[in-house]
Each structure stands twice: as C-alpha cells, then as structure tokens.
Amino acid sequence: MFNNKNFSLSHFKNDFPAAVVVWLVALPLCIGIAQGSNVNAFSGLIAGIIGGLVVTFFSGSKFGVSGPAAGLITIVVAGIATLDGDNDASIFFLAVFLSGVIQFLLGLFRLGVIGYFVPTSVINGMLASIGLILMLKQIPSIIGGYKGLNPDAYSAYTDAEKLDLHLLTKLWIDTKSAIMDPTTGAIVIFAICLGIMLLWELKFFKSKPLFQYMPGSLVAVVVGSVLAYLFSTTGADSGSSLAIIAEQKVGLPQAVKDWDFKNLIKFPDFSHLANIQVWVVAFTIAIVGSIETLLSVEATDKLDPDKNISPTNKELKAQGIGNAISGLIGGLPITMVIVRSSANINAKAKTQWSAIYHGILLLISVFTFPTLLEMIPTASLAAILCVLGFKLLKLKKVIEMFKTDIQGAIVIIVTITAVIATDLLTGVGIGFALAMFFLLRKNYELAFISHIDEENKKTVISFAQIVSFLNKGALMQTLQDIPNGSKVKMSAKKCHTMSNEILEVIKDFRDISSKINNIDLELIGFDKFLPSDDIESS
Description:
With 538 residues, the protein is mostly helical. 64% of the residues lie in helices and 6% in strands. A hairpin with a 4-residue loop joins strand 3 (448-453) and strand 4. Helix 4 crosses helix 15. The radius of gyration is 29 Å and the shape is elongated.
C-alpha cells in the first residue's frame, strides 16, 4: 500500500527533526480542537495519533500530515448535540466510523475528483462561517474566569448550534461584565497568548529560523500554563479570582493517568445503525472532510519542492481507514491538515517517516506528560483557536473577490449567513444552489453570440462548444427580435454538443418563422446535428 521511496529510513536525520516541529505544532492543536469540539482532550489526541501512524501508512502524499481539523469543529459540536445530548458521544463515534467507511468507498469508486466540482466560493464561504463560529464559541473560555458567569450561562454558549440575537446579546453583556472585572485571570492569559500568536504571524518572526522551529501555538501554551500556575499559586492564599481553577484547564480522563486501557477507549454504539440522523452526520463528516482533505492535498502539492502529485483516490481511502479506526476507539474525525503539512515541508522533511514519527511523539506525550497537559488553561487554547478561526475567514481573499468576481463574493457572504442562520449542511447547500444559479445564468448568456455583419447586412449567430436546453429561452428571444426580410447566418462550426430542444427551435425557425417573415436563412456546420435531407431542403 505504500511507496518505498516515500518511506525510506535513509533520511532519518531530516525526517526526525521535522517530526519534532510538526509534533510541537500538532500537540496544542489536537488539544485545542478537542476543547473547541466540547469533547475531552484525549479524543483529539487519538485523532492526531491515528493521523500520524495509520493514515500516513496508507497515504500517497509525501508530506501530508493528518489529524483533527478546525474545519470540522462545528459539525462535531452539532453532531454530538443531535445524536448524544448529554451522553458520552458513543453514537457520534458511530457516525465517525461510518464516515470513514463512506470515505473509503469514495476513494474505491475513484470519486477523488468530487472536490473539483464544488465552487471555490462555496468552500471559502463554508470555511469562513466555520472560522466565525469557532471564534465566537471561544468566548466562554475567554471569560471563564469571570466569577459572575454562572454554569447555566456558560453552557448556553457551548451547547448552542446556532447564533441567534438573544445569544449574541448575552455574549455581549457577559463579556462587558468580565472585562470590567480586573481580577479575571482567564482574560489576562487569553490576551497575552493572543499577542504571542499574532507576533508569530509577523514577517520578522517568520523570517527567523529560531521562530520557524518554535511554533507560536506551543509558546502560547507554555506561557499560558506558567501564568495559570503563578496565578493559582499567588492567588490561593489571598482569594484572588486571578487563580485558574481546574474547570478552566485541559481535562484528561483519569484512565489516561492510571493507564487504565479498559476504560480509556470509548467504543461506538452500533445499536443506532438504523438511526437516520447518524447517517446524516456521517455523510456530512465524509463529504466536508473529503473536500478539506482534497484541498489540503492540492495545497501541499503546490508547496512540495519536488512537485509530487498525490493520488487523490488513494488519499480518500487512507482518510477513510483513519476515520473508521478513530471512530472505533473514540477519536475525533480526521482530515489532512494544511497547517501541519506546510510545517512538515518547511522543516525540510524528506519522506513520509516524518509524519509517522510525529504520531509516535504524540503517543508518547499522552502517557508521559499527562500532568503537564492538564496544566494548560483553556484560555490559551482559545487564543490559538481564535487565530485559526480568523485564518479560516480569509478576509483578504473575500475583499479581493469583491473587486474581481462580485458573484463569487456574493456566494461567500450568502453561504456564511446561511450557515450561521441554519446549520453547516443547509448553509452549504444554499451557497451551492446560488453558485449554480450564477453558473447557469452565465451559460445562458454565453452559449451563443449574435451580432450584425454590417458589410454583408446579415445577422450572424455563432454557437459555442456546448449548447443545452438552458439556452432555449435566450435563443428563442433572439430569433423573435430579428426583423422581417433580414439575412441570417447560423454557424455551428465550433459546437460539439447541441441539445434536441435547441435543434427543434432552429428547425421551427427554418421551416416556419423564416418563411412567414421572409428571412433568408443560411445554416453552416449543422450537418453533424441535422439529417442531410434537412440541410439540403434549407
């Protein structure tokens, strides 16, 4: 299943250092994405480990790194809320398993091209809406230190699938109250960690080798953890609300610390196989995850210094195997992730072993440093997720589209609005429908060109390569507007496909309208569409 060249051990001196860099990027992201998905951190780490150890083995991408992705957070949150409610997400893990089976079948039936049929504007709108919701959902972690925020209000934010006016109003009121409290440790940690993340985005920091090998997310996590420790130590005796309590830190299952494998793995509940909602969530994860993977494959191949072309169908099968296994043991959905893949390339990896090494390092981290992982405050993870969410917005690209492609920009805005107002699948469907409407309208306008040949006093109608039934109305209107006694030339020389509906309009015009209105009609290139006796009779 794998390419020996891509798995050569001869490049250990390059691959292992690259793996360390990717591990440092992936560790806080796995935990942060789990936090954003309202599941325990171990589920995110499982997905990262499987992405490194399993998906890489079956993948055809030389530098691709897989794991839990921010783009699926809203689907996870909505899926768990719909399927499990307050239970242990066992039904949702069934959906993850089934999504893997669906993905594998997509690859098996060579449907790796599906990503190319989704308009870029719809994808950008989907990612932007996910980014916006992701940022807004971090508010509970940011203001979690505010002593006036009761548990019911806190859960109202984390459990909400939609962002209505009432919820936004509550968010604004509670945020103002939290900001007015100068003793809120969570806000301080968030602000400092956000500042670190933004500093790492500056060109100055990106250009320095030291900072390239020291991810901003890792620095933010370390600094946030140190601050949380200091706040808790200094504030314990004085009663200061700067202190970060256990609920405001990453939580790992006790089974991890006890090495209790029997209770560590969460299994899917197969008794719900007949539940239609399970299949809806599974198909949603499979389709959105596949699109995100295929986009990451394309982006990674562009960054590849060797310009390798990754086989998309093989990648879908690899992701399918990974998601099936992840769902079986209580892990989050997996996709190829461009952030980790680009870090892998920039760190000078040579083979797929770098991604496998990073998975091994994640596995070691879980069982070696559980106490250290539980020192991470959720406020620092909120800063990381806010930056990730902002990147998903791609505001620069949207602004550029308003200048170059107004229809594409409209699709993005409508998709964002629809996703926030409804849900991800419905919103994407609305965006896709609008994009198709614009496409059909453009096809309606460009299927043929009509102009006046002044020299020969003729109306010339030239058909494009493909003319479908969608162009029937426009053609009929054009023919009706031709004045009586005119000369008309219709050319189908460039046309390869012409629907029967269009041919019927042309024959009716030739046999009836042209004779009634004394129009001199010349047909050129129609011998491939009309019988020879029809052409001769004209």
